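Crash report, auto-generated. Payload:
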Amino acid sequence: MNAEVRPIVPLASSSVGALAAMKGVFSRDMKVAFRQRQDLLNPLLFFIMVVTLFPLGVSPEASFLREAGAGILWVAALLSVLLSLDHLFRHDFDDGTLEQLVLQPQPLFLLILAKTMAHWMLTGLPLVILTPVLGVMVHLDGNSIAVLCLTLLIGTPVLSLIGAIGAALTLGLRSAGVLLSLLIIPLYIPVLIFGTGTVAAAVEGASVGAYLALMGAFLVLALTLAPFAAAAALRISLSNG
Amino acid sequence: MRSAHRPDYGALMSEPLLQAVNLQCERDKRILFRELSFSILPGTVTRVEGPNGSGKTTLLRMLAGLNDAWTGELNWCGSPIANQREVFLRNMLYLGHRPGIKPLLTPMENLRALMAGRRPVSDAVLSQALQGTGLAGFEGVPCRNLSAGQQRRVALARLLIADEPLWLLDEVFTAIDADGVVALETLLQQRAAEGGAVLVTTHHDLALPGMQRLTLGAGGVTDER
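Recovered output after restart:
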């Protein structure tokens, strides 16, 4: 192991910007995910299965599905995001990359934001892309499908961001699954109510502007606060681990 | 980097990089150590010693800022670390029990990700570092196909390109073969000669000339040459 001679000087600050560091975190998470494709497919398959089982289990009537469709899709999306949350930090915690992430000379909340963005791109976004197909299956009309997609596009990042707090808090626990759900679902409820409410308004032909504005407010709130909370939670979990 | 903000290095060479005053750490209602004070000077290798469970890993995690359950004072270049966390992190390299290597990524990708938030490093330098740890030819193999020792060498490759003055190395000799151990010992010594400070825990029989010892465990803490 021959090293070049490196004179010692205490360094003033990081020579890499926060944006480059975020890019590094994001691209690593994407790379890891695409080498483990079945983990990517799990939430998607879950989403499709739940939505296809509803007409079989409850009623295939077009009138029922039109009324319940948006709710079914929203609940399925919410649960499938919840299903994927445990993986957000768990693998990184186990192999030690999480320690190294926390020790980067960068603001931790920005690195977590990058991680959460990668999580959304890998779970939330595919759900949004699949929604038009499943929307047709539950007899939603074109306008409602468009609104549903829009609410999911705004809503799923909120689910990922809030979920990151729960995932970080339950990281040190052995059976985190149930506790994670108990912690997170109450926080998901407002997003669910406004998400389905928006589509219900669209089905009735009412204006959806106010609903969408509120959902946008949820997203802004989650974007600005959740990374800080998740960063603090992560430090606590690592401190105990 | 803004050179105007740099401290006076000439003066710093004789002053401790890291200074611990009256550290006390409690874990599971058991006091691991109390009234622990020491200074880490530039150009030294310090071995943290003690029986299993005496708090070696906990001490290193505390110093790195991964563990918050302690009281006392920790200073970096004379001022509290808490006030200059990002500066301290930029100056410190920590290698823990868990190597921080993603099994699905190749050594090259792992190294690149580890350096991403620290400083820009070209791929040529990274592959040189991997060759330096004896991983030539394995740059493109996913790490899960490598042996435990080879995975550890990926993490150790960081030491060859690290510019951080302070290294905190927890059980780095684990799973490394005899040749690797010798090379690593040489590297630590060379690092100290350059003016770096190294804190290392190991059960391997490490004895470098001029090495300092920091002993934890029964009978309190001693700091001897």
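Post-recovery validation: Residues 20-240 of chain A form one domain.
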